[in-house]
Amino acid sequence: xxxxxxxxxxxxxxxxxxxxxxxxxxxxxxxxxxxxxxxxxxxxxxxxxxxxxxxxxxxxxxxxxxxxxxxxxxxxxxxxxxxxxxxxxxxxxxxxxxxxxxxxxxxxxxxxxxxxxxxxxxxxxxxxxxxxxxxxxxxxxxxxxxxxxxxxxxxxxxxxxxxxxxxxxxxxxxxxxxxxxxxxxxxxxxxxxxxxxxxxxxxxxxxxxxxxxxxxxxxxxxxxxxxxxxxxxxxxxxxxxxxxxxxxxxxxxxxxxxxxxxxxxxxxxxxxxxxxxxxxxxxxxxxxxxxxxxx
Length: 295
Fold this sequence. Notes:
By secondary structure, the protein is an alpha+beta fold. It has six helices and 20 strands.
């Protein structure tokens, strides 16, 4: 079986037709089998791809010979692509056809050289930590994919009242938050939702997690950085019988009293980065660190 490259996208934009078609053509010219996520492939009809392109619809369809997955879209697309990779150890790279592109670093202009640089091993692999969630008392929520790259978040549902969240670290009681919600973020997720709620920025290789309250009632409830080996247990209560739990872009309704057990996943995500891509450069260009508007 020839080695394959998988392509994933959520929302196809017609102006990206040439980009997608050229990437797939180049992959096949380099001797790779081209696999395209089935729903995305259905949107690519105007691009007139070769008949040799095959579809995949689940994690099980990605065989051991898949050498790389390319995400086409924004950061949300890349987060969803992670659910197809799971523990399969397939490297992931994102081509940014969206807006901010904090995770999907490759611009459309640089996409043409991506595959050639990949086959020449002109890149480095970066390991990204993932979170695993187990719900004690709920066997249906997140039954298919219980891992997240950015964060696990709990938030209120069907109420404007705050919720209470008991937090335990390694079976030692921490505190009870009274807030709109609570986040447990990875270093990757520290620049997302957690950052907008006042959490710190962690470098991707930090061996830490961030616990960040969302709009807490008490102003002394501050974000907390803990070792990534910490086992976190949350119990939520509110005026309504249910609350929301999200893992990256996926969200479920969970009954109050169900225990959320959160820990570092047993596997990591491998992402592709090039020499010119560095986290500190991304902070400067995407978050405008050091930008002086007076100039």
